[in-house]
Amino acid sequence: MNTHNPSPSQKQLLLLAVSFLTRIPVTLNFEVSTTALNQASRYFALVGVLLAGILSLGYLVFSYFFPASISVALVMALGLILTGAFHEDGLADVWDGFGGGWKVEDKLTIMKDSRLGTYGAAALIIVLLIKFQSLVVLSESLNLLLIALLLGQSLSRIVATSLIADMDYVSHDATSKVKPVAMYLSTESYQILLATGGAVILFAWLFSVLSIWHIFTVILVLTITRFILIHWFKKQLSGYTGDCLGAAQQIAELAVYLTLVSML
């Protein structure tokens, strides 16, 4: 990278975050570097807010023509298209690697394999089915469904991104074709990430049917989920990979939906 190039602006970092986490076309008028990607991670939760907005709009359109169950299925399909199944791919790779490997090296080798194994396929089916059923239940209240999408899409990305601050990155071998991943989370980026989450939580409390107790319970469950994920990844790999972050996002998102369903 040319060191004489100015550092990307906050707007450019936001666009990089959108480009990294989604298939939404954006124009990046700067040279992307590892440093820029690390800085862009501060806006990953904001990308979740953007996705929640698009998915919510999609549901409103779909539900005008179709029943709730079909509308939810279409919204999930829209989400997969928007993200390129980025996080779902990480979830499948993690389950394949952790389920099929004994040593760390074996697990990493399996995780980089582009083929889908039994563990990964089973994990994807189970997670998608539970997510579908949870959203169908939540769709009984339009307000609750839209807020669930907002909380699920944004807070899950905070949980996943925050792992970078507390864990070591485990690199694959030099010959593997790894996906780019943020490997450092600065204090400023962490603060922006949490501030985004705080704004989302405040909005959910003020403009939804959720009580402060509901909000507190969601935060508590996500905190416990984060602790379990850290313990799981450290036990399996002594750190994290990009696939681990994708799996963390999917598990945290599902935790949000299940928590809300359990409190109905």
Write the layout of secondary structure elements.
Elements: H1 10-21, H2 34-40, H3 44-65, H4 68-83, H5 86-100, H6 104-112, H7 118-138, H8 142-166, H9 187-206, H10 212-237, H11 242-262
Helix pairs in contact: 1-2, 3-4, 3-8, 3-9, 4-7, 5-6, 5-7, 5-11, 7-11, 8-9, 8-10, 8-11, 10-11
Top keywords for this entry?
single chain; 264 residues; mainly alpha; globular; cell membrane; transmembrane; cobalamin biosynthesis; CobS; EC 2.7.8.26
The gist of it:
The protein is built from eleven helices and no strands. It has 264 residues and is mainly α.
Describe the 3D structure.
By secondary structure, this protein is mainly α. It has one domain. Helix content is 73%, strand content 0%. The protein has eleven helices and no strands. The N and C termini lie far apart (52 Å). About 2% of the residues have low confidence.
Domain count, please report it.
1
Percent of residues in helices: over 70%
Query: How many strand segments?
Result: 0
| Structural class computed from helices and strand pairing | mainly alpha
Counting DSSP H or I runs of 4 or more residues, the number of helices is 11
Strand content: under 5%
Q: Ends: how far apart?
A: 52 Å
Give the overall average pLDDT.
91
Main beta sheet strand tally, sense and closure: none
The poorly predicted ranges are: 173-177
Global Rg: 18 Å
Question: What is the N-to-C succession of helices and strands?
Answer: HHHHHHHHHHH
Shape: globular
